[in-house]
Specification:
alpha/beta, Rossmann fold, 6-stranded mixed beta sheet, 8 strands
């Protein structure tokens, strides 16, 4: 794997307008964005174990909606933690936070956003965590190695 200079972001949201707007915005700001309408079709969820070795990470940032039809954002993040995913920068968005869900998200180390969340707030958080991402890190090539379904896409 080659060192990557672009920050890689996985974006999960079942609402097309939200997902597409944030994906385009983040791409315009120079980030490598992989967006999915459903966490169950994301390559990070498909594989039974994390493919990253000790010197790699699958992605730099995960931003997920909390409530989606097939799987919640909390379940997705829990699964990644169980697989020893090394992504340290995770945010969850929802307009329907309960105390229990908030507590669980905090236990998983997630940044919490209340919907409707502004692009300004998301970008500010990304800029903050970007300071902690080594520009010489190696990113795992999971996207290239995992067969994908039709409705995923990468915005260059």
């Amino acid at each position: 794997m080659q060192p990557s200079t672009k920050i890689r972001i996985i974006l999960l949201d079942d609402i097309d307008s939200i997902r597409n707007t944030f994906a385009k915005l983040l791409t315009i700001h120079g980030y490598e964005v992989f967006s999915f309408s459903n966490p169950t079709i994301c390559p990070l969820q498909i594989v039974p174990e994390c493919r990253c070795n000790k010197n790699q990470t699958c992605t730099d940032i995960i931003i997920s909606d909390l409530d989606m039809p097939s799987m919640t954002g909390l379940n997705f993040i829990e699964n990644q933690r169980k697989k020893n995913c090394k992504c340290q920068h995770v945010a969850l968005m929802s307009g329907l936070w309960t105390e229990e869900k908030l507590s669980h998200a905090h236990e998983l180390g997630c940044k919490i956003f209340m919907k409707p969340v502004s692009a300004k707030d998301i970008l500010k958080w990304i800029e903050e965590v970007e300071k902690y991402i080594n520009p010489d890190r190696e990113l795992c090539g999971w996207f290239e190695e995992t067969p994908l379904k039709v409705d995923e896409y990468k915005l260059a």
